[in-house]
Amino acid sequence: MYLKSLDLHSFRNYSHQNVQFKAQKTIIVGNNAQGKSNLLEAVELLATLKSHRVNRDRELILEESETGQILATLERSYGVSELALILRSTGRRTVMLNKEPLRRHIEFLGILNAVQFSSLDLELVRGSPEVRRNWVDTLLIQLEPVYAHILQQYNQVLRQRNALLKELRKKEIANQNKDIIIEDLSSDVAQLKLWDLQLALSGSRVTRRRARVIERIIPFAQAWHSSISGKTEILQLKYKPNVEWSNDDAIQVQQAFLDKIEQRRIAEQQLGTTVVGPHRDEIEFTINQTPAKSYGSQGQQRTLVLALKLAELKLIEEILGEPPLLLLDDVLAELDANRQNQLLEAIQDRFQTLITTTHLNSFDAQWLKSSQILSVKQGQIYE
Questions:
Q1: Which residues 6+ apart lie within 8 Å of 167 measured at CB?
Q2: Cβ–Cβ < 8 Å for 48, 141
Q3: Which of 146, 148, 150 lies closest to 138, judged by CA?
């Protein structure tokens, strides 16, 4: 997999910029707030249709413009593809493959695969469970693009069910404050049962896939972690689903959901929100049987994240048969010399790598010689 070119129109602080990639490794150098990360964000959007920095498309478009465009030429083992993503300030998007608009965004996913590693990824260890869920979900979308649709379905069911629970709670409070029952809850309760089934169905699809991908990434993460730590530390990853199940069987997992929903029925009706489901999953990291989130030093946490990112690369390459792109956003500044060397050694020329930095001191002469070096200044790229 090789990204040959990238064209940005009214994207972030780029008015119009064309980049031709001429080496397996591209170092993008410049001061802070010049547009280095924006370049990597454009590639990330083509890979996942998501930005890890913002949620609204308006923030991705150059000020005073209504639309922004990201165009790319990608070479894969089966041929060359032209990708296009058109962003609008209204939030509506258009995705195109070889100049043909695609009706469903899911058809665009999986064409370009990339692993992003930025200083924000340190939150993977010390951040909230949501950060870890997002990490697994982003990986799954690249390995199995249909998962984006599965996750979207689950979130829609969750929103509808939460709205109904909230309405039920309001009616219950209204009835408690009156001497006579003024709100009939029977139809809402019947409707809630239907949403229970939908939650079990869509939730089981999410949790089973999360469990599988974590199981597959564990050996790669452990091997990298052992290597980086000089075999002094043992990493363990554990998926802790909100709904526990043992057999990877659709019917059994759905039944486990329905059982737990019944157990938490009163709590949900009192809170007016759904407390059962994969939106409350956790992924636990331990180093030498000690929780990395609470007790890991900053160095240990960085080793862990580095091992996870290298494991992502390996897993995507193994499953898809081609190495993904690697996007390193100002991450060398977060690593000590030993971890920098481990990372740069692991990359070599196996992965096309785009790496941003404020200076070139971290790279040895051989790396610099074999890399394309681009300078960024105020939304302009110079070779």
A1: 188
A2: yes
A3: 148
The arithmetic mean of pLDDT across residues 170-185, rounded, is 68
- Using 50, 70 and 90 to split pLDDT, how confident is the model at 178? low
Domain 1-113+322-383 has CATH 2.60.40.60: no
* CATH number, span 121-318: 1.20.1050.90
SS3 95: strand
Query: Is residue 319 within 8 Å of residue 292, measured between CB atoms?
Result: no
Q: Which residue has the tokens 């090789």?
A: 2
87 alpha carbon, distance to own chain's centre:
19
Nearest to 27 by CA among 283, 376, 372, 377: 372
Mean pLDDT calculated for residue range 179-200: 80
Residue in the structure block whose two tokens are 């591209």: 26
pTM, to two decimals? 0.88
With cut-offs at 50, 70 and 90, classify the pLDDT of residue 184.
Answer: low
To the nearest 10°, report the CA torsion of 245, 248, 253, 254: 170
Domain positions in the chain are: 1-113+322-383, 121-318
Residue 12 to residue 88: CA distance in whole angstroms: 12
